[in-house]
Fold these 2 entries.
Entry 1:
Amino acid sequence: MLAPFSLSSRLAGLALLISPLAWSADWQALPSRAPESADNPSTPAKIELGKMLFFDPRLSSTGTLSCFSCHNVMEGGDDHRPTSIGVHDQLGGRNSPTVWNSAFLSVQFWDGRAPTLEAQAKDPIVNPIEMGMSGIGLAVDRIKCLPGYPQLFEGAFGKKAGISDETIAMAIAVYERTLITPDSSYDLFVKGDKTALTEQQQQRGMQAFSDVGARLVIPARTSAAQRAQLAPASS
Ligand code: HEC
């Protein structure tokens, strides 16, 4: 039988590295919905628009890179590279994290510099080594000229809001909140279905995860010293 996951006794020596909050919680299942922003509620029209924008390479200066290029949601939500390649084949300094379940993170980016998905979404568009637009206004102007988008923005945000950097980011964020993986074998196991993980392989993996303290990754986003270790700043 599986031993109980008594994290506190085995990891007492690491207590200084972690926030007490991380250890008060036991294993938890992912909720079936991502938390929403009160200022940006999800609607089917907004989700559909956000999905189009996420897949649209016309948001990049060369017309060749979309969010999907570095966050392949058909696979793991990343690009399978040590560090990402942006416009004009420029090699970036950081690894692309998955967008799957990013809606549950308290902050975005390896160094946590964006507080929300909405704040995060504008950054790659104007990052010179990612989508390379020389200004967010240029991306807005381009989207305004593309057939179909004005009607979709009106359907998602009403007549007044129009197409802006804010509404582009809001739509993308709402789409990203659909990229979640509830009810995986792990979730079902934690919710009480003891047959969801085989003891031989997965429960032992879960035990090993707990033993080495892999949950340190999440508190690391909140500590400046650990942030520096986790990913050196990109150029
Ligand atoms: C050229 C590759 C590339 C493109 C294009 C790109 N990203 Fe990223 N993305 C990255 C990298 C690299 C990071 C990590 C950068 C960092 O932490 O400084 C990242 C981080 C993120 C994160 C934070 C996830 C986390 O775990 O902290 C989200 C969300 C995200 N990107 C969404 C998007 C969206 C939305 C777009 C399109 C508007 C986009 N990305 C375009 C490479 C890319």
Entry 2:
Amino acid sequence: MRAKTKLSWEEKLDQTLSKIGLRFTSQRQVVYSVMLDVRDHPTAETVFLRAKQAMPEISMATVYNCLDTLVRCGLVAQVNLHRAATRYCPNMQEHGHFYCDDCGKVFDVPMAPPVRIMDIPPGFELRRIDVSISGRCPHCHGAVGAGRTESARKSGKRGVSAAA
Ligand SMILES: [Zn+2]
Ligand SMILES: [Zn+2]
């Protein structure tokens, strides 16, 4: 079952940690696996509750430390949304976040590079863009199950071609 060309997430974690001089520990492994398992942008507290299921003795402080380490080595991103607790996201592709005002869920929204949202004045070096959008998700908006189905949308055929 092991694909030679692709590193397992554990190997990736091990390599990434050692790049910044850190060891692979079972705590870091558990916290990272929690992040990869359910990609719903959990808060540190949710990560703690989930990690406890695999490792009952893990402490909140350890979870915070592990999350901090994962952020530092670039495997997990911190997501800071307006008026909400910091959340964590293991998707390291360029993307923004859509926050549903009704259910509180956070969704990844892909960004097509180059992203040009505003004019950066000369002299500033752009390093990172955080895009957070709020509104209502399809479920809360009532679009799910109303007429057009998800499966029709996802059937693969892209009906609309971009005007070149
Ligand atoms: Zn919603
Ligand atoms: Zn995300």
